[in-house]
Design a protein that fits this description.
The chain is built from 8 helices and 14 strands. The model has no long low-confidence stretch (mean pLDDT 87). 42% of the residues lie in helices and 24% in strands. The protein has 2 domains: 2-120, Response regulator (Rossmann fold, 3-Layer(aba) Sandwich); 125-221, Arc Repressor Mutant, subunit A (Orthogonal Bundle), CATH 1.10.10.10. It is an alpha/beta fold. The protein has helices at residues 10-20, 32-41, 59-67, 83-91, 104-120, 151-162, 170-178, 189-204; strands at 2-6, 25-29, 46-49, 52-53, 56-57, 73-78, 96-99, 125-128, 131-134, 139-142, 145-147, 167-169, 211-214, 218-221. The longest helix has 17 residues, at 104-120. A hairpin with a 4-residue loop joins strand 9 and strand 10. The two termini are 24 Å apart.
Length: 224
């Protein structure tokens, strides 16, 4: 999962980043301006949004997402506990609202829940033809038999299935799965290696070949 944490309180922001970094790609910012910049240039699975930002109202982020038809899941994290703020946030596009202070374990459970609702209509299992993915357990089975994937291969398969039928550019794959780390690479050859390994594993499990290369652009996961 690729997360954007929009939070101006440095200590809390760093704690959230540290807690979610295991198995996820996490990026952060502390201002409304930086949040709009990141959301203008990159896509995320889920946004953790503090509405009390130093340079503006965090609700503007929800307006931006709606205006630009972006489909990130949004969980508001705020010290404001008023019913009006909760209703306003949910009415303009937030998926959940969590009042500070909170336990990080509860935050993670809420994030998992809103992401699941966005991607699988609330189910714990994502099914695509002969591919079955147990989301809480991060287990992939093909025709009933589990296969062993690395963390990046698992995240890549989930990303492809979520975007099945679409041509996905290599840089979009890199941004989604590696975030800011992609800046350390001079090219996208590493994407080819991960795709090749993922494709081999699913083909070896007697799965249909859904992964297709699109010359000069990236890859497409067939929607059949």
């Amino acid at each position: 999962m690729k997360l954007l944490v929009i939070e101006d309180e440095q200590g809390l922001r760093e704690n959230i980043m540290s807690y979610f970094n295991d198995g996820n790609v996490c990026e952060s910012c502390a201002t409304l301006a930086d949040a709009i910049y990141k959301l203008s240039n990159y896509d995320y699975d889920c946004v953790l949004l503090d509405i009390g930002l130093p340079d503006g109202d965090g609700f503007a982020v929800l307006d931006f997402l709606k205006k630009n038809k972006k489909d990130e899941a949004v969980l508001i994290i705020s010290a404001r506990n008023s019913l009006d703020d909760k209703i306003r946030g949910l009415n303009i596009g937030a998926d959940d609202y969590l009042t500070k202070p909170f336990h990080l374990s509860e935050l993670k459970a809420r994030v998992t829940s809103v992401y699941r609702r966005k991607t699988t209509n609330g189910s714990n299992v994502l099914v695509f033809n002969e591919i079955n993915i147990d989301l809480p357990g991060r287990v992939v089975s093909i025709k009933g038999s589990p296969i062993v994937l690395t963390r990046k291969e698992y995240d890549m398969l989930l990303y492809f299935i979520a975007n099945k039928g679409k041509v996905i550019a290599k840089n979009a794959i890199a941004e989604h799965l590696w975030g800011d780390e992609m800046d350390m690479h001079n090219n996208f050859d590493f994407i080819y290696t991960h795709v090749k390994n993922l494709r081999k594993k699913i083909l070896d499990a007697d799965c249909k070949d859904y992964l297709k290369s699109v010359y000069g652009i990236g890859y497409k996961f067939l929607a059949e």
